[in-house]
Design a protein that fits this description.
By secondary structure, the chain is α/β, with parallel strands linked by helices. The chain has one domain: TIM Barrel (Alpha-Beta Barrel), CATH 3.20.20. The chain is built from 19 helices and 14 strands. Strand 11 and strand 12 form a beta hairpin. Helix 4 crosses helix 9 and helix 12 packs across helix 13. Pfam families: Glyco_hydro_77.
Length: about 500
């Protein structure tokens, strides 16, 4: 990218797209969304991790770092290909229009996805079967484990392989794996076909985006979920003992936001084991993600310099310790394998130390600036040196009004006290009803090379549009959905005008 290139993007996870089937999909609505971005001169589409979600439905606790979320598969496309009946597509339950009810969606879509996979096996054309077989062969290194894992999760009705599954499967004894693969072979095939459906559809979406001058920003959580196939199949790369039990967990220490810190519960990496294997798992992970998107944001980037490790059994994160991580070695290996110009965005929010900044800057990765974090008002005064204020941003950064973990900008402003609101209004020089648009305007006028606004801010939604409240596990998390992509013409015109005026 040229030094003076600046772009605008919109953050909108595919699950949030409107559809008749209760959850956004990789069908018409995805292409309509891309048309909307193109019409508005938006050149970036940022999404959350695309992996299949488990308990809590968080994309950041996916069951696989490599698989795709089957619930995003478009049923209409499967019907068009002859794998579903028309009636399957046009009948649907009375889904909520502004939320994803994941239980309802699973009950509706999973039987149809299985039916489509069965029809594919029975009636697919030879060239389509050949393409599927090539997909299975090329992706066997992760797909074989994932398909078996998903089947076992359903068989035992629980993804907690480390607690519920029989010891011989928990510890992946060769004879037990071979027996399960044989016993569940037909079910395993169904999972593989569904993954073929997902990636075939996603590549059409990505190709359409790229053809229209739009790049996709993907996302990787630094840690894997404890109840994931990643943990089950790669115990030797994690601090998990010979019995399959975690010995330590990830988190963050106590800070101004939490007296007890945050205990995430993810297993942490045995970096010495990764080093011995030349960081091959990480190379595959980044490479696979960059096949599905053009740029990748890495969540909790600071964990590559040092991470907070908490002994297993602790109830809070208070009694953890900082443990150094070989981030410099890792990125040397990644560059040797994938090229020097890694298209990575470093999520560097929170308390960041010099070693994290050095790791980010030495690799020329842009960091993140959150405009909502800029207005730390004390005594009715604004700290004008705040690094998140637009006038303090640097070019090699990505600025956001807010992220998936923040309130919407309207919700954030509404929740402020009078002194805070006064400072915001004075900085933006606007009345209450123009705060959201002036936040967007200031963000676009900053020198940050990329500026991203959540779809909810484009729509000026209040707190009802919030995507996630960190450290909670409620039904509203990860469930927000747009009612329509038919925006008022003035919203399109206003954003496009601001993009043009700011040179983005």
């Amino acid at each position: 990218m040229k030094q003076n290139t600046r772009r605008c993007g919109v953050l909108m996870h595919p699950t949030s797209l409107p559809s008749k089937h209760g959850i956004g999909s990789l069908g018409d609505e995805a292409f309509q969304f891309l048309d909307l971005l193109k019409k508005t001169s938006v050149r970036l589409w940022q999404i959350l991790p695309l992996g299949p979600t488990g308990y809590g439905d968080s994309p950041y606790a996916a069951r696989s770092s490599f698989a795709g979320n089957e619930l995003l598969i478009d049923l209409k496309s499967l019907a068009y290909d002859g794998y579903l009946d028309v009636e399957d597509v046009f009948y649907n339950p009375d889904f909520p229009s502004d939320r994803v009810d994941y239980g309802m969606v699973r009950s509706f879509k999973e039987p149809l996805l299985e039916k489509a996979a069965q029809e594919f096996l029975a009636h697919a054309e030879p060239d389509e079967l050949s393409a599927y077989q090539n997909f299975v062969s090329e992706n066997a290194w992760w797909l074989d484990d994932y398909a078996l894992y998903q089947v076992l999760c359903r068989h035992y009705n629980d993804s907690r392989w480390f607690e519920i599954w029989p010891e011989e499967l928990r510890l992946r004894k060769a004879a037990a794996l071979k027996k399960a693969q044989k016993e569940f072979s037909s079910h395993i095939e169904i999972i593989k076909i569904q993954q073929y459906f997902f990636f075939t559809q996603w590549q059409k979406v990505k190709s359409y985006a790229n053809t229209h001058g739009i790049q996709i920003i993907g996302d990787i959580p630094i840690f894997v979920a404890p109840d994931s196939v990643d943990a089950w199949a790669n115990r030797h790369l994690l601090k998990i003992d010979k019995d399959g039990r975690q010995t330590v967990s990830s988190g963050v220490p106590p800070d101004a936001f939490s007296d007890d810190g945050q205990l995430w519960g993810n297993p942490v990496y045995d970096w010495e084991a990764h080093r011995k294997e030349g960081f091959s798992w990480w190379i595959k992970r980044i490479q696979k993600t960059l096949e599905t998107c053009d740029i990748v944001r890495i969540d909790h980037f600071r964990g590559f310099a040092a991470y907070w490790e908490v002994p297993q059994g602790e109830k809070t994160a208070m009694n953890g310790t900082w443990v150094e991580a070989p981030g410099k070695e890792l990125f040397v290996a990644l560059k040797q394998a994938l090229g020097n110009d890694l298209p990575i965005i470093a999520e560097d929010l929170g308390v960041i130390t010099e070693d994290v900044e050095d790791l980010r800057d030495s690799n020329n990765f842009p960091g993140m600036k959150i405009l909502q974090f800029a207005f730390n008002v004390e005594g009715g005064k604004l700290d004008a040196s705040n690094a998140y204020l637009p006038h303090n941003c640097v070019y090699n950064s990505v600025i956001y009004t807010g992220t998936h973990d923040n309130n919407t900008t309207r919700g954030w402003y509404d929740a402020m006290d009078g002194a805070g609101k006064d400072v915001v209004r004075r900085y933006l020089e606007c009345p209450d009803d123009q705060v959201v648009w002036q936040m967007i305007r200031q963000m676009l006028l900053s020198c940050s090379k990329d500026a991203i606004l959540p779809m909810q801010d484009w729509l000026e939604l209040g707190a009802e549009g919030r995507m996630n409240i960190p450290s909670t596990c409620g039904q509203s998390n990860w469930s927000w959905r747009a009612r329509s992509l038919h925006l008022e013409p003035w919203r399109i015109d206003r954003l496009r005008s601001l993009i043009e005026l700011s040179g983005r």
